[in-house]
Amino acid sequence: MDLSNLKPKVDTSTLELKHPMSNEVLADDSGKPFTVDVLLRHTKEYRDLGYEMADRRSVRLAKAKKADTIEKTADTMSDIDDMIARSIKGYYLIENGVAVEYSVANTKRLLEDYPWIREQVLEEQAAYESFTKV
User: How many domains does the chain have?
Assistant: First the structure.
């Protein structure tokens, strides 16, 4: 055994989206799978997203303390959703017969409209196999 065999070899993983009920891979009419490119948790870019979220929360907590109020749960959840959306680096998805153009704004909308995509992204990021894929 050598530790270097367990060192992350990639920074992103391409997830093939699955139907939330049947677990079948979703594809367009030609059979091309719907994919989402996700940033993996071990990367500096992913950690930086977490630091940004924590910094925003710290600022909100300081302001809330001065105003003698409490932080809103919705603000924290919004930060988490933003981090998930920004950890998605691209995708191939068809919606209403048209390829969805990648943008963080479109990604946030997709995650809101299709919450099962969010869950599949989180599962992919957490999977040990994603961490050590060759």
Answer: 1
